[in-house]
UniProtKB/TrEMBL annotation:
<dbReference type="InterPro" id="IPR004675">
    <property type="entry name" value="AhpD_core"/>
</dbReference>
<dbReference type="GO" id="GO:0051920">
    <property type="term" value="F:peroxiredoxin activity"/>
</dbReference>
<dbReference type="InterPro" id="IPR003779">
    <property type="entry name" value="CMD-like"/>
</dbReference>
<protein>
    <submittedName>
        <fullName>Uncharacterized peroxidase-related enzyme</fullName>
    </submittedName>
</protein>
<feature type="domain" description="Carboxymuconolactone decarboxylase-like">
    <location>
        <begin position="52"/>
        <end position="103"/>
    </location>
</feature>
<dbReference type="Pfam" id="PF02627">
    <property type="entry name" value="CMD"/>
</dbReference>
<keyword id="KW-0575">Peroxidase</keyword>
<keyword id="KW-0560">Oxidoreductase</keyword>
<dbReference type="InterPro" id="IPR029032">
    <property type="entry name" value="AhpD-like"/>
</dbReference>
Length: 188
């Protein structure tokens, strides 16, 4: 099995140190996935740029976390599903919403469910949602710009989910209480 170092700031390549410091400043710590990216300054910089751009979308912090969680569940990424479960709670998603999203099941809020479902469909179809999927998303009150912003979320999480699949990044202590495995996904 392939294994990547999870470097400290001091052990990271020189080109990754400033970005790791920015991550720590923004989040209070640099998660193991970001430290894994630090093995390549270009990948770390790109991942951080994607995350920063996604944080500037018109979606609320709770919606951003719901999108990220839905994508991570669809891609069966335990690391990211755990992280976004914790961050989703902090952003205001309810326990019921988190439980449903983690299981791949519908949410009670029609608007949040439309968002979860659309992010899931875009991920599952590799960016090819059907006309009925787009129509349902728009009917829930979202617009064409929101579709582009969901696509940004999918691009961001695809990099992160796929990296975890290859690197088998150890779950940070902060995320262990919200650990997730594909067996929890019932909405297949």
């Amino acid at each position: 099995m392939l294994s990547y170092p999870i470097p400290t700031n001091e052990a990271a390549p020189e080109g990754s140190r400033a970005t790791l410091a920015a991550v720590e400043k923004a989040w209070g710590f640099a998660p193991n996935l970001m430290r894994t990216f630090a093995n390549s300054p270009a990948v770390l910089e790109g991942a951080w740029a994607l995350l920063t751009a996604f944080s500037k979308t018109r979606f609320t912090p709770a919606e951003q976390q719901l999108i990220s969680l839905a994508i991570s569940v669809e891609n069966e990424c335990g690391y990211c599903a755990a992280a976004h479960s914790l961050m989703g709670k902090g952003a205001g998603l309810t326990a019921a919403e988190l439980d449903a999203a983690r299981a791949g099941q519908p949410l009670l809020s029609p608007r949040h469910e439309a968002l979860r479902r659309f992010a899931t469909v875009v991920t599952a179809t590799r960016g090819n949602p059907g006309a009925s999927d787009i129509d349902a998303f728009l009917a829930a009150g979202y617009d064409a710009t929101a579709i582009l912003e969901v696509m940004l979320g999918v691009a961001t999480k695809t990099l992160m989910n796929y990296t975890d699949h290859v690197a088998h990044v150890p779950l940070d202590t902060a995320f262990k209480a919200t650990a997730w495995t594909a067996e929890l996904k019932t909405g297949r």
